[in-house]
Amino acid sequence: MQRLWVPHRMVYVADHHQPDHSDCPFCEASHRSDEDALIVARGKTAYVLLNLFPYNNGHMLVCPYRHVSLYDEATDEEVAEIAALTQTAMRVAREVMGCQGFNIGMNQGAIAGAGVASHLHQHIVPRWSSDANFFPIIAKTKALPQLLGDVRASLAAAWPHP
Q1: Residue 129: in which H helix or E strand, if any?
Q2: Which residues are catalytic?
Q3: Which residues pair with 61 in a beta bridge?
Q4: Which residues form a coiled coil (predicted)?
Q5: What 3-state class would DSSP assign to 61?
Q6: What is the C-alpha separation between 65 and 111, in angstroms, rounded?
């Protein structure tokens, strides 16, 4: 049997700590450089970044800058910008990556599966007809064909600038 070693995933798998406002990775990311934090685009109240532990190639997250945990705690302005950034992310991913569909969603609270329950974030997962193969089922491993930095650079370069 062959094995694909992905030791970088152990950081995610082994960490059961739920960050709060004092150690929130999304609050921290917004203060770092786009390249360092894997930020694709910044808006007025929210921003888009790549998921450090992606389910699929090009897996993006849309987060408000403000540290709120639930969707109903977001302001109307934040909700509108999260929606607009999500639409743009979909358009850019289709253009740059040629994806054929998306999984979009939010896990609200730790009990619902949120890895960072204290900071609202929406997942945008590009999908292709060929991405459903035996690897995740049999090997419980996801093969990603591009490095995160390369994906960020191509998405950011294609992002429309007002």
Answers
A1: none
A2: 121
A3: 49, 123
A4: none
A5: strand
A6: 23
CA dihedral 74, 80, 83, 86 (to 10 degrees): -100
- Find all residues with CB under 8 Å of 97, minimum gap 6, and list them: 57, 58, 126, 154
pTM as predicted? 0.78
In contact, 124 and 62? CB cutoff 8 Å: yes
What are the E-state strand segments in the chain? 39-42, 46-50, 60-64, 101-105, 122-127
Closest by CA position to 128, among listed 149, 104, 101, 109:
101
Nearest to 107 by CA among 95, 119, 99: 119
Q: Identify the band that residue 110 occupies on the pLDDT scale cut at 50, 70 and 90.
A: confident
Q: What is the tens place of the pLDDT at every residue in 72-83? A: 999 999 999 999
